[in-house]
Write a structure and sequence with these properties.
Distance between the termini: 26 Å
Helix content: 25-40%
Shape: globular
């Protein structure tokens, strides 16, 4: 913000984008050995213990409205696509002309996109970041502590999203 104010004072309007990181949920369908809330808590364990309750949809919308001046919101978690209200929250942030980013493990996106509620998901998304820790499915399954079938969905969904970029403008990033 300070750098942007300095630039503006000099007539330079090439601003550094500001964004808010919203950890929307501690819930996750994976149990990655290396993933935590940066305070030592493992996401699914925190969620199952009832710690750090998720905001309701209405509370989430109020938060997004408060964050509007930042111009961009970075949805993350746990696994943000687990939230049933993610399409509604994305519609709301898009209606406020916000730049939308999401960081996901990518395992659920392909199946979600087939549901009617998700028909505008990609249209409302500016950047989709998929965490990818290996291209070897057994290795992914071991790291994520899930079945090979579940871990293979990450690769399948990245490929599907890559194809969908031909039809919908969003940036796809492998983290």
């Amino acid at each position: 913000l300070i750098k942007n104010k300095r630039k503006m004072a000099k007539g330079n309007h090439n601003f550094i984008p500001l964004f808010y990181i919203w950890t929307m949920t501690n819930n996750c369908n994976f149990l990655c050995s290396y993933c935590s809330n940066h305070r030592g808590g493992v996401y699914p364990v925190l969620f199952n213990e009832g710690k750090n309750k998720d905001l309701t949809t209405e509370q989430g919308k109020r938060l997004i409205k408060i964050l509007k001046p930042t111009s961009a919101i970075y949805f993350c978690g746990g696994e943000p696509t687990i939230r049933k209200d993610i399409p509604e929250l994305l519609e709301y942030s898009t209606s406020l002309n916000m730049f939308n980013l999401i960081n996901s493990n990518g395992s659920l996106i392909g199946d979600l996109l087939t549901k009617p509620r998700y028909k505008r998901f990609l249209l409302n998304m500016d950047v989709i970041i998929i965490s990818l820790d290996s291209l070897i499915i057994p290795q992914l399954a071991e790291m994520y502590k899930v079945s090979e079938k579940s871990s293979s969905k990450v690769l399948r969904n990245i490929l599907a999203l890559k194809i969908l970029q031909n039809y919908v403008p969003f940036k796809l990033v492998a983290n």
